[in-house]
């Protein structure tokens, strides 16, 4: 594909009108095994909050970010759920195969897998987007997003973190475990990715897109004041691991950080190796799009090499320590940031996201804009169209300077 596809004369990022309660659960994502305790936890939480609103949930008990505002007709070319299976067969699968991919050397010599799609014509390029994915994820998951960004004249750079996806694993004895020696290794890897891969070509503008754990990594990277990054979007960022109540969050983090070395590489209790069955769609905490959820499960079943289990106790301790630093040092960030919060997120802490915005807004000269999408679950980039299209549209408006920059 070239980049001659016209941009449709549309533009909208309006969301549904019903607010809802941020769910909280002390575990991470779908790639983790489904313990009986975790299933029961979700059932109890949904029973506690069921009742009002379009998605059967109550209004949030704490002040949330402003609702993502409605705007005029859409102008971005974005894939729709109704056409997704056909799009994959006819366009996206071939587009994904056309990617340039390979390995670069991360911190401490780890071989890290990357995949990129560069616009052929630099002069007409809208910019380059560095996609920083979440825990357990892989570049392969972002084929639909890459396809949409490319059609809208962006180049796309993405890679697999150490210890997951197609990159070198950290624990050779059990590659299913989500483990990292030090959390700042992720930030060092991003620095090397930018230097070794992204900066080998000149781009008009360079942007970060961090999802979940990738949002925390992007925040820490920006706090080091890197040159050449013009703005960043953080979607459902992990500014604290797990959606615990605040008091429990401190207790869980303290327990993980005090754990003896002998158990540091064990799975966090309640997690374990990857469960190929996955959540039933009705119980999954990630998305309300059946088409995208089914495709996600198929992707991980088809590619066993990218499957990941739960995190280790040491990973949790590191994530607690560095995510606190990410939110408390947000005032050092010197580029505009847009944070999008999923209103029904059960994976990461909405309170920690609010703290990040509060610190950056009060201490940094750069703008920090935040919106909430009431009713949306954690995975905004694979959510139902009524959430994904507003989220991706406002992101593209932000990158192109129509809002916030």
How would you summarize the topology of this molecule?
Elements: H1 36-49, H2 84-97, E1 100-105, E2 111-117, E3 127-132, H3 143-151, E4 154-159, H4 184-196, E5 206-211, H5 213-222, E6 231-235, H6 246-257, H7 290-302, H8 313-328, E7 337-342, H9 350-363, E8 368-373, H10 385-399
Parallel strand pairs: 3-4, 3-5, 5-6, 6-7, 7-8
Antiparallel strand pairs: 1-2, 2-4
Q: How many domains, in number, for the residues?
A: 1
Q: Using only CA atoms, what is the Rg?
A: 20 Å
**How would you classify the quaternary structure?**
single chain
Strand order of the largest sheet: 1-2-4-3-5-6-7-8
Low-confidence stretches are 1-38, 40-63
Arithmetic mean of pLDDT = 85
**The CATH fourth-level homologous superfamily:** Alpha/Beta hydrolase fold, catalytic domain
| CATH-defined architecture | 3-Layer(aba) Sandwich
Provide the helix percentage.
25-40%
Give the distance, in angstroms, between the N- and C-terminal Cα atoms.
30 Å
Which shape, going by the Cα principal axes?
globular
How would you classify the helix and strand content by structural class?
alpha/beta
Q: How many strands?
A: 8
CATH class: Alpha Beta
CATH topology: Rossmann fold
Task: Output the number of helix runs.
Answer: 10
Proportion of strand residues: 5-15%
Write the H/E string, N to C.
HHEEEHEHEHEHHHEHEH
Sketch the major β-sheet: 8 strands, mixed
Description:
This protein is globular. The chain is 32% helix and 12% strand. The chain contains ten helices and eight strands. It has 405 residues and is α/β, with parallel strands linked by helices. It has one domain (36-67, 80-399): Rossmann fold.
């Amino acid at each position: 594909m070239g980049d001659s596809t016209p941009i449709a004369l549309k533009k909208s990022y309006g969301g549904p009108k019903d607010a809802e309660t941020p769910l909280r659960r002390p575990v991470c994502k779908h790639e983790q095994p489904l313990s009986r305790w975790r299933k029961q936890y979700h059932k109890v939480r949904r029973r506690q909050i069921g009742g009002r609103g379009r998605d059967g949930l109550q209004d949030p008990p704490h002040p949330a970010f402003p609702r993502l505002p409605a705007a005029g007709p859409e102008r971005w070319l974005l894939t729709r759920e109704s056409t997704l299976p056909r799009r994959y067969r006819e366009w996206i699968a071939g587009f994904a195969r056309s990617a340039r991919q390979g390995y670069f050397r991360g911190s401490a010599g780890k071989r890290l897998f990357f995949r990129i799609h560069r616009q052929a014509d630099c002069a007409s390029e809208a910019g380059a987007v560095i996609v920083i994915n979440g825990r357990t994820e892989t570049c392969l998951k972002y084929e639909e997003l890459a396809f949409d960004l490319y059609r809208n004249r962006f180049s796309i750079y993405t890679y697999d973190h150490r210890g997951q996806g197609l990159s070198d694993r950290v624990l050779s004895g059990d590659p299913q475990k989500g483990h990292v020696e030090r959390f700042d290794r992720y930030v060092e890897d991003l620095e090397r990715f930018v230097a070794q891969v992204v900066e080998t070509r000149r781009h008009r503008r360079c942007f970060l897109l961090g999802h979940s754990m990738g949002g925390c990594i992007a925040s820490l990277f920006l706090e080091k004041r890197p040159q050449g990054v013009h703005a960043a979007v953080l979607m459902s960022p992990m500014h604290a691991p797990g959606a615990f109540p605040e008091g429990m969050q401190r207790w869980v983090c303290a327990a993980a950080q005090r754990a003896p070395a002998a158990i540091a590489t064990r799975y966090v209790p309640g997690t374990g190796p990857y469960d190929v069955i996955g959540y039933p769609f009705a119980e999954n905490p990630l998305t309300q799009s059946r088409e995208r959820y089914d495709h996600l499960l198929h992707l991980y079943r088809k590619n066993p090499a990218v499957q990941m289990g739960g995190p280790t106790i040491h990973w949790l301790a590191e994530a607690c320590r560095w995510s606190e630093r990410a939110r408390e040092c947000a005032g050092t960030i010197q580029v505009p940031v847009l944070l999008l919060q999923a209103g029904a997120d059960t994976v990461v802490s909405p309170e920690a996201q609010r703290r990040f915005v509060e610190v950056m807004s009060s201490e940094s000269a750069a703008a920090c804009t935040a919106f909430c999408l009431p009713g949306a679950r954690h995975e905004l980039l694979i959510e139902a169209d009524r959430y994904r299209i507003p989220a991706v549209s406002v992101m593209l408006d932000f990158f192109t300077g129509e809002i916030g920059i």
